[in-house]
Amino acid sequence: MRRAPTTDPLRPVQAQREPSRVAAALTATGVLVGVVWVLELVDVLGFGGRLDLFGIQPRDPATLGHIFTAPFMHAGFPHLLANTVPLAVLSFMSAARNLWRYLAATLVIVTVGGALVWLFGRGNSVHLGASELIFGYLGYLLGVGWWERTPVAIGVAVAAFLLYGGLIWGVFPSSPYVSWEGHLFGFLAGLFAALLLHGRRPGRPTARL
């Protein structure tokens, strides 16, 4: 009696999983970039830039809820254009490994980073722009590499640093028209998200007798 050839059931599953993961990351990134562009088009063409008031005004109780809108608003198209490419690249790199952790990290960056800007940002100023997310994703990717310390996580962290590590200088005060607070607190919130979501390194398998 001839036995049917055996196949490894894990291989086709893994082969299908990788393209779907990339597709999900591309979709999430496309939605994010699309949202910020649509909002800016609506703001400029429909409201004459008045939606910029949905940025964060530190310690103003009326704008506390703006921590959830500020990262998606921009002060004109030059501001948006400068943020689009790094936002897309770092968003995709963050989402490619695990979409749900990416969404959770985005929520942490927006909430924690925005709250810190509201608490400690300069007074008499409006803070807005996707740079909070950009620095947040950069901090998240570097943090994941540090806390997971797996070859993939370290490789992604190194790639992110080589591409955009120079942005870290943006966490220091420079131009009065640049929200270095958004950069700094976004980066710290990204590190916190990595600690929260990836703080435990994968344990080594143990053999039982």
UniProtKB/TrEMBL annotation:
Subcellular localization, as worded in the UniProt entry: Membrane
PANTHER family for this protein: RHOMBOID PROTEIN 2 (PTHR43066:SF1), RHOMBOID-RELATED PROTEIN (PTHR43066)
Organism: Deinococcus petrolearius
Chief location category: membrane
Residue spans crossing the bilayer: 21-39, 72-92, 99-120, 126-145, 152-172, 178-198
Protein name: Rhomboid family intramembrane serine protease
Pfam families: Rhomboid (PF01694)
Any one of the GO BP annotations: proteolysis
